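Handoff note, outgoing to incoming analyst
You'll be picking up this chain. Sequence as last confirmed:
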Amino acid sequence: MSIALVVFLGLFSTQQALAQCNNPSQFGTINAPTNNTITTITTCAFAGEYSTINSASAGSTYLFNATGGAGNYITIRQGTPGGTVLGFGFAPISVVCTVSGPLYLHYNTNAACGTDGTCHTGTVQCTSCPGAPDPCLSISPIACATPTTVTLSGTGLWNPGSCGFSTPGTEKLYSFTPTTTGVHDLQVTSTNSGGFIDYFIKDASGGCSSTGWTCIDDIFSPTTISMGTLTAGTTYYILLDPETISSVTHTFQINCPVADPCAAPIETIACASSTTATLVGAGAGWNVTNCGFSTPGAEKVYSFTPTVSGTHTLQVTSASGGFVDYFFKDAAGGCSSTGWTCIDDLNAAGSTNFGPLTTGTTYYILLDAEGTTARTHSFQINCPAPPVDPCAAPIETLICSDTTSVTLSGSGAGWSPNSCGFSTPGAEKVYSFTPTVSGIHTLQVTGASGGFVDYFYKDAAGGCSSTGWTCIDDISLPSSTNFGPLTAGTIYYILLDGEATTSRTHTFQINCPAPPIDPCAVPIESIICADTTSITLSGTGGGWSPNSCGFTTPGAEKVYSFTPTVSGPHTLQVTAADGNYIDYFFKDASGGCSSTGWTCIDDLNAAGSTNFGPLTAGTTYYILLDAEGTASRTHTFQINCPAPTSFPSNGAATVACPALAVAPTAPNLYLTAIPELRPYHASRPGHH
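Most recent structure output, in case you need it:
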C-alpha cells in the first residue's frame, strides 16, 4: 500500500470520527412544535454551540435546519446533549424521535466540527404533525388583574393586519367578560424580547374567525395600553398574533376599572363559611378610619344575616401582604363609605368578637386595606351556638297515664307564651299527645323540684311554634289540673316552659277519661216478642246522638237484636221507668251496627206504649236505647208482636182455636161428647 493511500485513509477516518459533533455550550431553548409549521429555535447560535428542543414525542419526525455563518453542519442527539445521535450532516436533517423527551441541535461549520463566532439561525418542523391549529378550537378565559403567560412559536393561520403589520406566527385566543362597564387597560408585564406580538379585540357575538379584529397595539416590551370602554356582561375575544414564527413569550393582564364596593352583586357570607379576599390597588378611594388607621387600599363589601342573636366572632385563618381593617354596619343604613363600626385591623391569623348582632337583620361587612399593595386574607364569621329548637324532631310522644320526667335548664329558644300570666325565659320542651277518648283530661304532676314550670297545650294542626298556646297551669309542686276538652284522634302539642333559667325537674302524666263503651261490642243481646227486659243506663256511653227523636242523647247507649216472626206493626211497651228519658230507635241490622241510620220509636220517661214498624218477619233489626242524660235511669220494656195468621192451600182462612181443657180422670166422671168444630171457609167468587 502506498504512503499516499495510507495518508488518505487516515484523513478519511479522522473526518468520519469527527462527523458526529458534540459541542460543550448551550444557546436557545424551545418546546418541540406540535404542528407542522416551521418554528425558529434561535437566530444567533454560534458554530460550536447546541440548542435544546424539549418535549419531543416518540415516533414523530422532525426536520432540523440551520442557516448563516461559514457553513451549517448539524448533529441531532437525543436524551442528553451528548446522547444518542439520531442524525448528522449538512442541514437540513430529518430524524425520527425514538424516546419522548429533549432533542439537541449541535451547530458546526463542517464535518470536522468546525466553529465560528457568527450567528446561525436554527429551526425545527414536525413534518409528521398536523397543520397549524385553529385558534378558535382553544379559547382560554381570562379575568381582571390575572397575569397570563403565553409562548407562541411557529407558523399560524391568520393575518388580521389591522395593526399595520404582517403576523405569520401562531395565534392564541382568549375570552374576557367585564364585570364593570368602563375603560380597561392591557398591561404587558414581561417579554422575552423574541419579537412583536400584535394584540386585537372584538365582540364575541361577531363569531370566532380571522376577520373583524380591532388592533389594541403591537407590543415588543412591557407597556400598558388602553383597550377603550368595555361593557359589563359582554364577552370579548382577545387575539395575540406574533409578527414572527420564532418563539415569543409575553406575560400580560387586563386591568379593569375600579369597581364600587357597593355595586351588585354583593357577596353573601354565612356562619363558619371560609371566605378568601385579595385586595390590590387603590380601590374606590374609601378611607374608613374607625379602626384608627388610614385605609387607602382596595375595599370589599359582604352581606351577612345572623341566624342567632348575640355576640359573633371574626376569625382570620390566614393573612399575607399586610393589614386589612374589618368593619360592620346595619345594612338598613345603606351601603356607602360612612357609618362603619370597627371590628379590628389584622395582618395575621387571629379572632375578634363583635356585635351583638340580631337574628334576621342584614349587616354589611367591610374589608379595607391599609395599603395599595396586594394582600390576601382568609376569614370567617363564627356565630353563637343556636338555641335548642323545641320543635326539632324527634318530638317525644306522650300516652295516657304514662309517667314522664323532664329537666329544663338554661334559656332555651327564648319562647314566652305568657298565657299562664308569667314570663318563661327558661328552656322549653314540646311533646305530642293524641287522645283516644274525647273529653276533659287531667295533668298530674307527681314530682317537682327547682321551681315553676308552665304547662300549655294547643292543636298540632296550628304548627309547632312559640305562639298559640293555651295555659294548663303553672306548677312548682305535685298537683293535678283538668284541661280540655280534647278530641279523640286529634294531635295536640304539650309545652313545658321554665319560669327561670335555673335547672328544674318535673315528673308528670296525662290522665285520660274512661273510654266509652261501644254499644255495638259483642255480644249484642237478643230479645223476643213479649219478653220483659230491664236495663239501667248511666254515664256518657259511646257519645252517640241519633237525634231522630228530636233530642240530644249524651248518655249511655244499649243495642239489642230483634228478629220478628210475624210481619206487621209492633208495639214497644215500657212497663216501668225510673230516672228520666230514654230515646228508643230501630233500624234494619243489614245496615250495620253504628251511630247512624236510626229511626225513632219514641222518647219515654214513664210507662207507656208506642207502635212502630211495620217489621218484616225473618229480618233482623237493631233496637237502640239512648239516654237523654248521663245520670242513671232504669227502664223495663218489651216488644209486643202482632197475632200470627196462616192461610190453607184452598185459600180459606183458618182460625186457631184455644186448646180444650180436659179434666183429669176421676172416679164417677163421665166425658161429654163435644160437637165437631168445622173450619169456617170464607166465600169465594162463584160459591155460596
